């Protein structure tokens, strides 16, 4: 017998996506224009990064909408995995953008060029505001949904880049050191790469049906074995259906007789409360009929 607890994902972030895309697209035009006029690599690089983030936001929004589609005869789980794919794509996009920034900054560092520090500071300060506001729109969902976290990291990273540009512009006005612009770009890019690496690894792990980081498989098995009447647990599998929904399947071996719906409901509540598992499927097996785990899958009983 199975018992499913269906979860329909996090609150919609449609408004946040729409505002974020509109704000950042407008700012890309402004930043690229002034970056070209004053010859600032930091502004031009940040504009390119912001453009990649607009694409990332569009991708994350599409994935969020796709994940909300109801299951049908061809896709019995719906399109929930789209959110994991978007999180992975966003991480790759951000890493590529920062790699490109490092490459260009390294070349510019060899032949530093003067720039208009005041213009750089003003435009970058606007970027801090635009990206900071956008990041704040996604902050609420960044802890529970990896797709939303990807969007949040993009915007928070952009705010950090813009803040670095403001600082380099101020130092340039004080010192006249032309190398500050590309050096600041390199430093900020390294910080963002370090912050994005976790998203990249986590989303790649989930793409291959890895156990979500919030779940320790041994703890799940121990909790199921501790249930009254359960003498063994096997065929235990835990994976992510989306960036916010976790599924579980398990076979529970009991001496004799079905434990009833109340027993299954208790399992559902405990798994949801302790491990945030939203879609458990439990099969009850009588001890006399138990043949164990034939294919040696994870979570087999001793």
Element layout with pairings:
Elements: H1 14-38, H2 41-67, H3 82-110, H4 117-139, H5 146-175, H6 180-207, H7 217-225, E1 232-240, E2 246-254, H8 261-275, E3 279-286
Parallel strand pairs: 2-3
Antiparallel strand pairs: 1-2
Helix pairs in contact: 1-2, 1-4, 2-3, 2-5, 3-5, 3-6, 4-5, 5-6
Compact description:
The chain is mainly alpha-helical and 302 residues long.
Verbal overview:
With 302 residues, the chain is mainly alpha-helical. The protein has two domains: 14-207, Alpha-lytic protease prodomain-like, CATH 1.20.1510; 217-289, Cation efflux protein, cytoplasmic domain (Alpha-Beta Plaits, 2-Layer Sandwich). The protein is 62% helix and 9% strand. The protein has eight helices and three strands. It has helices at 14-38, 41-67, 82-110, 117-139, 146-175, 180-207, 217-225, 261-275, and strands at residues 232-240, 246-254, 279-286. It has a three-stranded mixed sheet with strand order 1-2-3, covered by helices on one side. α8 (261-275) links the parallel β2 (246-254) and β3.
